[in-house]
Amino acid sequence: MSSTTARLRDAGRTPPTGIPVALAGGKSLQIHHWLRILPGKRLVGYGEWDGRKVLAKLFIATGAERHWQRESNGIQALQRAGLVTPDLLASGELPGGGYYLLTEFLSGSQSLQQVWDQLGDQPDALAAMDILQDALHTIAGMHRQGLAQTDLHLGNFLRYEGQIHTIDGDAIEVQEPGKSLGQRAVQRNLALFFAQFQPQWDKRIDALLPMYLTVNPVSGLEVEPLIEAVRTERQRRLDNFLDKTLRDCSQFAVTRSSRHYCTVLRSEQQALAPLLTDPDSAFGGTPLLKDGGSSTVARVTVGGRDLVIKRYNIKGFSHWLKRFWRPSRAWHSWLAGWRLNFLGIATPQPLAMIERRLGPLRREAWLITAYCPGENLFQRLGETGDDLPDQPTGNAMLHLFNQLNDARISHGDFKATNLLWHDDRVCLIDLDAMQSHDSETSWHKGWARDRARFVRNWQADSKLAQWLEQVLPR
């Protein structure tokens, strides 16, 4: 029996595969694998139609015609402009409501995002610049034809048989039909692109911009205003992402009541279910990592994987009076962890956050993160400071400090025990006091405190302390 629009809509986050989807004209579509699911709205999958491999987009929401039409118009605009994009094979209404759009499936292609991710956490400069050149040449080609991609990221460009293909017609806007985009529109669109990268890449924009200008020489496009626009756009993206971590969406599952609030990575929801139901069960019968008055920390094993759970305690009625009216420390640490994650700064991945509530009033709270097995920097560098770090450790430390500096983030408790060496990176833990600074004055004060506290881990006259004074950003 063919799957109907209603069945696909009702299936939510788990639409069926392996069954035919009836299309207009008596033909059907066989979906082998779903690639993206927006429950009840839009489904994207790989499958077969009329003996061909296809990428299928099914628009199943009520009133989905607008999105389907935008996708069709975007693909056609790319084709009219002579830009390379997968062929549009079929498009139309789904029996029972909704719309479909089928494009050529480029078997063996890789998105530029996949290629970028293969470079690792600190990509080789030449390989990275090669990827960015491919993207910037393609973006410049779109701008020359009056087109702008409003969802501009590396995932929307595919490498296939030596060419770059642009995908996601829904995000293509024809802003200046028949003529090149103006300087302001170009700057706005390039800021959208560069904002997806970590802040340290802002320093490379002066070297990257000429790659764009060789294809589309826009007058008046300057580096400094572009960098300011990039920072503004990155902050907007970060704010939107942090908001997502606190609401029910495709990436996070949120449950709430008058007595309870919980947000968890959706991919971890099933594995963590027993711990989410009874987080205090983690603290019985296992040695604690910390048993202090303000917090209790335990290492637990869930599904064969080590995790850390931290309970933020309420020490008494007077302590509760100071805490109940504001977000919990678990809430703050959850957002701090995801902020670092977004910016590519190493920290154990946050997995879930729970608050016990009494209506709008906060009580105890818990934070669950991945476990980092690395040794802390006291252990790695030695407590005396008599020796300098080896080159990999020294480079990783400076990389972390420069990342924090570029992102204007202060940790607030920069003890060497709060920095762990793992997988050739220095990871930050204990984010309770972390701050992101809006003003230069606030940032300078926060970084100065962090810098002084980190150097103070070792005797002032030690080799290590003196080396740190020389190399740490000021």
How would you sum up this structure, described in words?
The protein has 4 domains: 5-104, 2-Layer Sandwich (Phosphorylase Kinase, domain 1), CATH 3.30.200; 110-244, Transferase(Phosphotransferase), domain 1 (Orthogonal Bundle), CATH 1.10.510; 252-370, Phosphorylase Kinase, domain 1, CATH 3.30.200; 375-471, Transferase(Phosphotransferase) domain 1 (Transferase(Phosphotransferase), domain 1). It is globular and about 75 Å long. With 474 residues, the protein is of the alpha+beta class. The mean pLDDT is 90. It is 35% helix and 26% strand. Strands 12-13-17-18-16-15-14 form a 7-stranded antiparallel sheet, with helices on both faces. A 6-stranded antiparallel sheet has the order 1-2-3-4-6-5, with helices on one face. It has 14 helices and 23 strands.
Nutshell version of this structure?
With 474 residues, the protein is α+β, with helices and mostly antiparallel strands.
What's the arrangement of secondary structure elements?
Layout: H1 5-10, E1 20-22, E2 28-38, E3 42-49, E4 52-59, H2 65-80, E5 88-93, E6 99-104, E7 110-111, H3 112-117, H4 125-144, E8 147-149, E9 157-160, E10 163-166, E11 172-174, H5 183-194, H6 205-213, H7 223-244, E12 252-256, E13 260-265, H8 269-277, E14 288-291, E15 295-302, E16 305-312, H9 317-323, H10 329-342, E17 350-358, E18 361-370, E19 375-376, H11 377-381, H12 391-407, E20 409-410, E21 419-422, E22 425-428, E23 435-436, H13 440-455, H14 463-471
Antiparallel strand pairs: 1-2, 2-3, 3-4, 4-6, 5-6, 7-9, 8-11, 9-10, 12-13, 13-17, 14-15, 15-16, 16-18, 17-18, 19-21, 20-23, 21-22
Helix pairs in contact: 4-6, 5-7
